[in-house]
Amino acid sequence: MAVQRLVLTDFRCYASLRLNIDAPMIALTGANGAGKTNLLEAISLLVPGRGLRSARLTDLARREHGNPNLGQGWAVAATINGIEGHCEVGTGISEDPGTDNPRRSVRINGATATGQSALGERLSALWITPDMQRLFTEGASGRRRFLDRLVFGFDPAHAGRLKAFEKAMRERSRLLQTEVTQGTSADPAWLNVLEETIVEKGVAIAAARIGLIDRLNPACAMGVGPFPSASLALDGVLDGWLSNMPALEAEDRYKAALQESRIEDRAARSAAIGPHRSDLAVTHILKDAPASQCSTGEQKALLISIVLANARLQSLERGACPILLLDEIAAHLDEDRRSALFAEIQALGAQAWMTGTDASLFAPISAHVQHFTVADAVVTESSPDAFAA
Length: 389
Known about the structure:
Structural class: alpha/beta
Shape: globular
Radius of gyration: 22 Å
Strand order of the largest sheet: 2-1-4-5-6-7
């Protein structure tokens, strides 16, 4: 999979940009704040989800000093070589972006698509950012989002299930709150309908996560050169039910739990059981230690190992390697791991977009890299000699 042309309109710091890509590896170098990561973020929005920064739609629009309302709409478009061959994809907001809840549009070959799953059917991307190792020590929500991004590469419909689940959860919570705000009992028939949707989507979400982990763990256990082997597991009530009983029995138990916990869930404004409560546990196999207890460098290496294992598995199962978006990755690795990463990217045949402030870090692969310098949102293609500067 590859982006062959990238076009931005009023996106982040870019009023307009068009890049033509003709190499398997792309290096974007320049000072901090020049706009390098914004280019990776644009590509990350060409797959399901909220992109590598999980930003609000309105925050992606271009702003200028003294004119904060400039460019409330934005667009990212690309010509890609994807799962279904060459096609034109795009996403953005353009209709009434000033509303409280603007909608993100998706277009495939000029036609409007019904949802983000259409993007996942054609393209897959994985990314690593400088602060991602913090997901091992912070709340479980970041680890769930990371796992769901891994699932998107194999199951594009996973994004739609998550959206439907979250919507039903919000509506159930709002309905339960009417007993407090209006002093009236929630409609039990409507609660049953919402809880049936929550159970259906929730079990499917958990099953997709479990299925991926079962297939991914053998690849993670192999490791890559100096990158450590990892083991992944899900920790959650619903996940335990699905692992120890038939899916229909798990659904019945989940439905009964929702009905029995309505009073508690009303007070908590959320449900105590479901895929939104699951956690991803990652273990450094050689050290037999949870990732949370590893050093920062080891956590970074574990992340890279997992992402590369996922890319290998996608290559085997889907016949194409995902695009890799690696923000400031080279600067945070020693020479051995940096060389191993470059070698694995080449072995996978992946298109990799990499950023850095020091162009010389990419000198060992200069023959395979298309190099762009980025300065104040101006992107200029450079010659291979620039790596030696």
